[in-house]
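Exam prep: given the inputs below (a chain plus coenzyme A), describe the expected output before reading on.
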Amino acid sequence: MKSVITGSGIALPPHVVTNDQLSRIMDTSDEWIRTRSGIEQRHFAVAGQGSAELGSMAGEAAIRDAGLKPEDIDVVVFATMTPDHVLPGNGPLLQKRIGLRQVPTFDLRQQCSGFLYGLDLADSLLRSGKFERVLLVGAETHSGFMPWDQGWKVVLGLSDEEPSDEEKAWNTLSRDRTVLFGDAAGAVVVEKRENGAAGLLRTRLYTDGGGAEALTMHGSSFKQRPFVTKEQIAAGETIPVMNGREVFKTAVTLMPQAVRDVCADEGLAVADLDLVLIHQANLRIIEGVQKQLGLPSEKVPHNIERYGNTTAATLPLLFHECKQNGLAGPGKLIAFTALGSGLHWGAALYRM
Ligand SMILES: CC(C)(COP(=O)(O)OP(=O)(O)OC[C@H]1O[C@@H](n2cnc3c(N)ncnc32)[C@H](O)[C@@H]1OP(=O)(O)O)[C@@H](O)C(=O)NCCC(=O)NCCS
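Solution:
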């Protein structure tokens, strides 16, 4: 038996925000963002539109692409680090929006590795014999943690009046993180197939809690009283913090190793891969992983320039685009890899 991706879909909020627009609301520049991260623009949702909605749109598109109806789905895995609510998770919100049967839904919180973990979980659910068709979703609305006020009106094109110097100074404090993220959703339908070469061949997942502080958010916690304090909001602690350099170094070491591991598990060489789909966090990381693996750039497509880092959505978004543009055609051997907050990382080997 193999777990086969039979459909995929994506959803992008319509507002496209360029680096130049961001440089109107904080001290940053197109040049800095482009050179350090490769990002040129990102999509932002408007207030009121959450990751459950975007994920549902992508999920509906994936179900249609698989030639199925919502009632055919018998389990949901929803990966996000920016859910609509702390509770309940996005799974039940999607179940209601799409009009699924009262099927079980799992909410995953593996951040940038969410889709990879979701693929492994989907495979296990199918192999357990309990389920036939999984809807796997990765969706984010990172715009919810951007601490801007008047800045939002400017980037969404609702006002030409730039923020005050005071607000610009405030927005600048978190510029090392806010310029990197965007909003999006991607989804796939994974089904059980008894015969054929296509399907998920192998996964390797890892966790190292020793790296938990490298990428985290301090400004809300059920271990403190109250859950979030005015001081934390005033100090900008509701925005994730990141040791960028440490994450960078770890990413360019551990992702190539995970890809080598899944290839070795299957008795394959890295050179046998047709495509490596890498979590889209930073173009320099993507190029670093490519170099470590010794692969030509044609085998390592990227779309971070258009979307920024969309966390759990990057891999299904890139996979969908590669299917659309023919790169991920029948028979192609694909490795997926990701690393993110946790630290969680890993790789998956998939035959189209
Ligand atoms: C975040 C990252 C792009 C920063 O790049 P970097 O080259 O390490 O840059 P630094 O953090 O050292 O900052 C260099 C300078 O740029 C400044 N800077 C930071 N953000 C800026 C911005 N948006 N615009 C302009 N200047 C900025 C810093 O203040 C610093 O200035 P200083 O030298 O005067 O102190 C990079 O470390 C990275 O991508 N790391 C991995 C991030 C990641 O993948 N995260 C998600 C994992 S899933």
